[in-house]
TrEMBL record:
It comes from the Eukaryota. It comes from Gouania willdenowi. It holds the Pfam family Arginase. This is Agmatinase. The lineage of its organism: Eukaryota, Metazoa, Chordata, Craniata, Vertebrata. Mn(2+) binds at residues 156, 179, 181, 183, 270, 272. The gene is agmat. GO terms for molecular function: agmatinase activity; guanidinobutyrase activity; metal ion binding. SUPFAM superfamilies: Arginase/deacetylase.
Length: 346
């Protein structure tokens, strides 16, 4: 609130073009308190202020929100390059470039939903199982308010406790999983919990509607000739990266919408689904991946579905020397916000 008020007076003093009319300035205090409006770089410099996601207000809980950005800063489930624990912070920093409207789809998320950044889950960086418990309990509280969580990871382990909490309200849930990897291993190095196992655990616990699961972008070397056999045996639709090469994914998403039907759907997007040429800052990169355009097509293709939550995981800032991986993650999260139910489109 302090920041918003400051921005209003600051905006009035630095912008002579608003003719003294505060209500033409797109800041939060002009929104009639119904919606949160992010600070606009037209009036407050991008480099100024505390870096919340999309320059939205921060609040401690999800109370009163329709959707919330939340960070889960862990990489203790990572099998290769670490660093995803720094993902939420870097995504927030790069998200200062985001503006309020989606020029491509004409979505106006901040005229539709009350959104805020509600900070991070208080994780235990020494104990992954305890972290999973903390995530599950945090998401229970978020979901109890009716708020839709938009999660910034963190490694992909987090999808398991998040989906446990989601499934307490929406079981079984459909899943659109965008990733280079199936993340359906059973045991890795003797451990059941890690970033390669979350969806196996979800299936074992009956959280997923397996006929309404699609995995898009899978590729790379495997431990066996058919790395994705287990997924197909569960009834998942598997769309390997090779099926995506050189084409628009809009037709695929029409089929995915038909597959998902009217039931609840969760979107889990691992940044390593994208080619490492576009998104090198990640823990387990695989060559010959999706383009950012295809990533956006997948998310925009989710419009109209009964989305109950989304995540963007595996951004690893130490391997992201330009910041472009985090910037891509920030934009994909904004695209996710823009396809939630009840979004206004101009
Ligand atoms: Mn993954």
């Amino acid at each position: 609130m302090f920041v918003a008020r400051w921005s209003l007076s600051r905006a009035a003093s630095v912008s002579g073009s608003v003719s003294g009319s505060f209500c033409r300035i797109p800041v939060r205090t002009c929104s009639g308190k119904r919606f949160n409006v992010p600070l606009s770089a037209e009036f407050v410099a991008r480099v100024s202020g505390i870096p919340t996601m999309a320059r939205l207000p921060h609040q401690d809980t999800a109370d009163g929100l329709d959707a919330a950005f939340i960070g889960v800063p862990i990489d203790t489930g990572t099998s290769n390059r670490p660093g995803a624990r720094f993902g939420p912070r870097q995504i927030r920093t790069e998200s200062a470039l985001l503006r309020a409207y989606n020029s491509g789809t004409r979505a106006a998320p901040y005229e539709s939903l009350r959104v805020a950044d509600i900070g991070d889950v208080n994780v235990n960086v020494y104990d992954l199982k305890d972290t999973c418990k903390r995530i599950r309990e945090s998401y229970r509280k978020i979901l109890a308010t009716g708020c839709i969580p938009l999660t910034m990871g963190g490694d992909h382990t987090i999808a398991y406790p998040i989906l446990q909490a989601v499934a307490e309200r929406h079981v079984p849930v459909g899943l659109i999983h965008v990733d280079a990897h199936a993340d359906t291993s059973d045991v890795v190095l003797g451990e059941k919990i890690g970033h390669g196992t979350p969806f196996r655990r979800c299936v074992e616990e009956g959280l997923l509607d397996c006929k309404r699961v699609v995995q898009i972008g899978l590729r790379g070397t495997g431990y066996s000739p058919d790395s994705f056999e287990w997924s197909r045996a569960q009834g998942f639709r598997v769309v390997q990266a090779e099926e995506c090469w050189f084409k628009s994914l809009a037709p695929l998403m029409a089929e995915v919408r038909a597959q998902m039907g009217s039931g609840p759907v969760y979107l889990s997007f691992d940044i390593d689904a994208l080619d490492p040429g576009f998104a090198p800052g990640t823990g387990t990169p695989e060559i010959a991946g999706l383009t950012p355009i295809q990533g956006v097509e997948i998310i925009r293709g989710c419009r109209g579905l009964s989305m109950v939550g989304c995540d963007l995981v595996e951004v690893s800032p130490p391997y992201d020397t330009t910041g472009n991986t985090a910037l891509t993650g920030a934009n994909l999260l904004f695209e996710m916000l823009c396809i939630l139910p009840n979004i206004k489109y101009y």
